[in-house]
UniProtKB/TrEMBL annotation:
<dbReference type="GO" id="GO:0000139">
    <property type="term" value="C:Golgi membrane"/>
</dbReference>
<feature type="transmembrane region" description="Helical">
    <location>
        <begin position="20"/>
        <end position="40"/>
    </location>
</feature>
<keyword id="KW-0328">Glycosyltransferase</keyword>
<keyword id="KW-0961">Cell wall biogenesis/degradation</keyword>
<keyword id="KW-0333">Golgi apparatus</keyword>
<dbReference type="InterPro" id="IPR029044">
    <property type="entry name" value="Nucleotide-diphossugar_trans"/>
</dbReference>
<keyword id="KW-0812">Transmembrane</keyword>
<dbReference type="GO" id="GO:0071555">
    <property type="term" value="P:cell wall organization"/>
</dbReference>
<keyword id="KW-0808">Transferase</keyword>
<protein>
    <recommendedName>
        <fullName>Hexosyltransferase</fullName>
        <ecNumber>2.4.1.-</ecNumber>
    </recommendedName>
</protein>
<dbReference type="GO" id="GO:0045489">
    <property type="term" value="P:pectin biosynthetic process"/>
</dbReference>
<dbReference type="InterPro" id="IPR029993">
    <property type="entry name" value="GAUT"/>
</dbReference>
<comment type="similarity">
    <text>Belongs to the glycosyltransferase 8 family.</text>
</comment>
<comment type="pathway">
    <text>Glycan metabolism; pectin biosynthesis.</text>
</comment>
<dbReference type="InterPro" id="IPR002495">
    <property type="entry name" value="Glyco_trans_8"/>
</dbReference>
<dbReference type="GO" id="GO:0047262">
    <property type="term" value="F:polygalacturonate 4-alpha-galacturonosyltransferase activity"/>
</dbReference>
<keyword id="KW-1133">Transmembrane helix</keyword>
C-alpha cells in the first residue's frame, strides 16, 4: 500500500510538469506567429497618403518596420516629415493665441500663416510626393537631401519667428521687461531731478548779467560825479523809536528798490516810516547812487549802511565768523565738496558763499545794531508789500520776541525737518512736531529780545553746531532754535509764501496778502521766474530809471 501510494503521487507530478511545458511552448508559438504576421504584412495605403503621416499606434510601427525592410532612407523621410508637422503645429498655436488675444500684430500673423502653408506645400510638391511618399521603391537620396534642406530652412525660419514672438506672449518676460523699464525711467528721473536742482540753484545764486550791469553803471555814475554823491549826515529819525522802522539786508540793488518802493507806495503815512538797508562793501556805493538818483517818495526816510560799519561784528564776537575762519570748518566744507559732489541742492547751498555771508546772520544782532529802537520789521529782499503794514506794530506779541507766520501743515514743515533730533541736546530740549515758521516778514520786539537774551541763546547753539551735527546750513534752523518759545504766530494773510516755486497759489490768497514772498529759486528778477506772479513784482520796478532800461532787465 505504501509503495502504491508513492507511485501514484509521482505520476501526478510528472503529468503536471509536461502540461506546463506544453502551455509555455504554445504561448511562444503564438507570439512568434503574431510577430511574423506584423513583419510580413504589407501596407498599401501610400497611394492615398497626403502630407499627414500616421504617428501613433500600430500604423506607425508598421510603417517603421516596412521602412527598415524596404529602404533605410524611408525612416529619415518620416523623421523629417514629422519635424515639419511639429513646427506647423507650433506656428499655428502661436497664431491662434495671437488671434485670441486680439494682438495688433497683423504682419506677424500673416507670416505665421504663410510659413505653415510653406511646410504643407513642400510635402505636396509632385517631385517629393512621387519619390518620397507614394513610391514603394528605393528613395532617391539626392531628392531626399533637397527635401531635407528645404524643410530645415523652413524650420530655422519658424524657430526665429517663435523666439521673436515669444516675447509678446510670455507674461513673465513682459513683467520683467516692464520692471526693467520702470527702473530705468526712475534712474533717469532721479538724475534729471539732481541736474535740475543743480541748474536751478546755479541760475538762482549766480549774478545775472542785468544785475551786474546795473551795479557797474551805478558805480560808473559815482566815479563820474563824486561831488554829487557825497554821504549825508545821519538823520535823527533813524533812531526815533516812535516811527515805524524796517530792516532789509541785501546786496541786490533792484530787489531792494522794489521792497522800498512797495513799502512806501502802500503806506498810509509814509513820512512815519524809516527803512534801514544794510549791504556789503562792494554794493554799498551802488545802492546809495540808486536812491540818490531815484529818491524815496512820500517823505519816508532811508538809511544805507555797509555791514563793515558795525564793527562789533567780528570773529571774536560772532561764532559763525569764527567757525568759518577755523581750520576745522574749512576742512568740513572741503570734505562735503569732495565726497558728495553736486548730488543734493542742500549740499550745494552749504557750499554757496551766500550761506556764509554775514548779511544773512545780521538778523541775530538787531538789538545791538539798533540799540535805541523798541520794534523793527525785518523784510527779505524777495518780498513785495501790498498793504500798509503799520498794523503789525499794533499786534500784542504777549511778551514774545518774534512775530511770524507759521508754515506747517500736516506733517510738513515741522522742527524735525530742519534740526537733527538724533542729537541728545536737541532731543531733550525741543519737540520734533513743533510747527516751523519762516523768515521774510518778521516783527521783532527788541525790548523782549534784550530781556530774553536771545542773541546769547543763539550764540550758545551756534557754538554747539561747530561740527554741523545739529543743522547743516542756512539761518532758519538756528532761528527756529533761538526763538523756539518766544515766537508769536501771526495771521497767514500777513505773509503769503511760495511765489518762487509754487505755481498753484490761489490769486485770491495772493491779492489778500499784506506781503507776498518769492521764496524759492524762481526769483522775479530772473528769467526762470513764474510768469503768473512776475507782474506783481515788476509793477514796483522803476522802469523809468535809465540804467534799468540800458541793462535789459526784460520787464
Amino acid at each position: 500500500m505504501a509503495v502504491s501510494g508513492r507511485g501514484s503521487r509521482g505520476g501526478s507530478s510528472l503529468r503536471g510538469f509536461f502540461t506546463y511545458r506544453i502551455f509555455i511552448s504554445a504561448m511562444f508559438s503564438l507570439l512568434f506567429i503574431a510577430t511574423l504576421s506584423v513583419l510580413f504584412t504589407t501596407n498599401p495605403s501610400t497611394e492615398n497618403d497626403d502630407s499627414n503621416l500616421p504617428t501613433t499606434g500600430n500604423a506607425y510601427v508598421q510603417r517603421t518596420f516596412l521602412a527598415l525592410k524596404s529602404d533605410p532612407l524611408r525612416t529619415r523621410v518620416d523623421l523629417i516629415h514629422q519635424q515639419a508637422k511639429d513646427h506647423i503645429s507650433l506656428v499655428n498655436a502661436y497664431a491662434a493665441y495671437a488671434r485670441k488675444l486680439k494682438l495688433d500684430i497683423s504682419r506677424q500673423l500673416k507670416m505665421f500663416d504663410e510659413l505653415a502653408g510653406n511646410f504643407s506645400d513642400i510635402a505636396l510638391k509632385p517631385t517629393y510626393r512621387a519619390s518620397l511618399f507614394e513610391s514603394d521603391g528605393p528613395i532617391d537620396e539626392d531628392i531626399l537631401r533637397q527635401f531635407e534642406k528645404e524643410i530645415k530652412d523652413r524650420v530655422k525660419i519658424a524657430r526665429m519667428m517663435i523666439v521673436e514672438a515669444k516675447e509678446n506672449y510670455d507674461t513673465q518676460l513682459k513683467i520683467q521687461k516692464l520692471k526693467d523699464t520702470i527702473f530705468a525711467v526712475n534712474e533717469s528721473l532721479a538724475k534729471a531731478k539732481k541736474n535740475g536742482a543743480l541748474a536751478s540753484l546755479i541760475s538762482a545764486k549766480s549774478v545775472p548779467k542785468s544785475l551786474h550791469c546795473l551795479a557797474m553803471r551805478l558805480m560808473g555814475e559815482k566815479i563820474s560825479n563824486p561831488e554829487k554823491y557825497r554821504d549825508e549826515s545821519p538823520r535823527p529819525e533813524f533812531e526815533d523809536p516812535s516811527l515805524y522802522h524796517y530792516a532789509i539786508f541785501s546786496d541786490n540793488v533792484i530787489a531792494v528798490s522794489v521792497v522800498v518802493r512797495s513799502v512806501v507806495k502802500n503806506a498810509v503815512e509814509p513820512w512815519k516810516h524809516v527803512i534801514h538797508v544794510v549791504t556789503n562793501r562792494m554794493n554799498v556805493a551802488a545802492m546809495k547812487v540808486w536812491f540818490k538818483m531815484r529818491p524815496i517818495e512820500g517823505g519816508a526816510f532811508l538809511e544805507i549802511k555797509s555791514v563793515d560799519e558795525f564793527t562789533f561784528l567780528n570773529s571774536s564776537y560772532v561764532p559763525v565768523l569764527r567757525q568759518v575762519e577755523s581750520a576745522k570748518m574749512q576742512e568740513h566744507y572741503i570734505k562735503n565738496q569732495g565726497d558728495k559732489g553736486a548730488n543734493d541742492a542742500r549740499d550745494l547751498k552749504l557750499r554757496n558763499a551766500k550761506y556764509l555771508s554775514m548779511l544773512d546772520y545780521l538778523q541775530f544782532y538787531l538789538p545791538e545794531m539798533y540799540p535805541k529802537l523798541r520794534n523793527i520789521l525785518l523784510l527779505d529782499d524777495d518780498v513785495v508789500v501790498q498793504k500798509d503794514l503799520t498794523g503789525l506794530w499794533k499786534i500784542d506779541l504777549d511778551g514774545k520776541v518774534n512775530g511770524a507766520v507759521e508754515i506747517c501743515f500736516g506733517s510738513f514743515h515741522r522742527y524735525s525737518q530742519y534740526i537733527n533730533f538724533s542729537h541728545p541736546l536737541i532731543k531733550e530740549t525741543f519737540n520734533p512736531k513743533a510747527c516751523a515758521w519762516t523768515y521774510g516778514m518778521n516783527i521783532f520786539d527788541l525790548d523782549a529780545w534784550r530781556r530774553e537774551k536771545s542773541t546769547e541763546h543763539y550764540h550758545y547753539w551756534q557754538n554747539k553746531n561747530e561740527d554741523q551735527s545739529i543743522w547743516k546750513s542756512g539761518t532758519l534752523p538756528p532761528g527756529l532754535i533761538t526763538f523756539y518759545s518766544t515766537t508769536k504766530s501771526l495771521d497767514k494773510s500777513w505773509h503769503v509764501l511760495g511765489l518762487g516755486y509754487n505755481p498753484s497759489i490761489s490769486m485770491d490768497e495772493i491779492n489778500n496778502a499784506a506781503v507776498i514772498h518769492y521764496n524759492g529759486n524762481m526769483k522775479p528778477w530772473l528769467d526762470i521766474a513764474l510768469n503768473q506772479y512776475k507782474n506783481l513784482w515788476t509793477k514796483y520796478v522803476d522802469s523809468d530809471m535809465e540804467f534799468v532800461q540800458m541793462c535789459n532787465f526784460g520787464l
